Amino acid sequence: MAAARVLLLVSGRSESPSFAQSVCGLLGAGPGLGRWPAHCAWKQGRLVLSDQPFPGAWARLPLQRPPFCPFAALDQQLRARGAELPRNRGVDLGVAVLLQSSDQAILLTRRTRTLRVSPNLWVPPGGHVEPDEELLDGGLRELQEESGLQLPQGQFSWVPLGLWESAYPPRLSWGPPKYHHIILYLLVASRESQQQLQARIQPNPSEVSAFMWLGPDIAAVVAATENGTETPRHLPRELPPSVPAVELGEDGRARHLALPTSTLLRTTPTTAAEGIERVSSGTKFALRLWLQHLGHVHVGFFSFIWR
Fold first, then answer.
1. For the domain with range 6-301, which CATH number is right: 1.20.1300.10, 1.10.287.1770, 3.90.79.10, 3.40.50.2000?
2. pLDDT single digits (tens) 41-91
3. Which GO terms describe its cellular component (predicted)?
4. What percent of the chain has pLDDT over 90?
5. In principle, which of 61, 96, 136, 176 could form an S-S bond with 83, CB 3.0–4.6 Å?
6. DSSP labels for 253-290?
7. How far is CA 4 from CA 1, 15, 100, 295, in A?
């Protein structure tokens, strides 16, 4: 079994959650949507979480899961469905970077249709963290691998935003979960403008099929579409019918795309529908945290780390 990447401190004891266990639940999450505060530390390549302060904790971050999270169900319920769950691994760790331009826009990328996990979803750049990497270094590496952007030292600041418990498939109605992650969202604020950053973007066509920049106004509407509710049938009057994006063609060339705004407001289907283009539920959570950060709402909830 691979070394655990997520450890929990529960009642003073250290434990590695099994694949089928809900991290939110083990940390005392109730039946509601959350958010629940989690104290965090990064120790020897592992993310340590607790619902109580502990020596070495460097942040207190909001932890959340979608209302339909498969791991919110009891282990017995999963077994009752005849689920074949992985037995040789625990909960994996991922990091995602919300890259903010100096004119306050966030970069999102669309995963290619050929990816095995979460195809065709709009997400911020991100992925795994190597055991010998720091969290920020892993996030910046993933940003460069997916978008081609390398941020010069001294030209950005960063802060951890929050933690998301992620499953794929995302609903039990889609089938038993095959992947279980805790995603740490990092806000990286660049001193460069959207135009300056876009001029240097070189998407990796094996992972990224399109990218776009979201400003606060559109992001607020996208973030307000909670998964677990129906997709809005009509756009608010103040919303534009489309948002500008850049898409990679089959020949690898970039072309401008008018992406229907309604696409960004879709929610997770109740039945299996891989490949339906939408913004992931974790991304909506991260956008809500970003908007709070911009508006200085509930700032005391976060412990900031700038470098």
1. 3.90.79.10
2. 999 899 999 999 999 999 999 999 998 899 987 544 655 554 567 777 889
3. cytosol; peroxisome
4. 67
5. 176
6. -EEEEEEEHHHHT----SS--TT--EE-HHHHHHHHHH
7. 8, 10, 31, 36
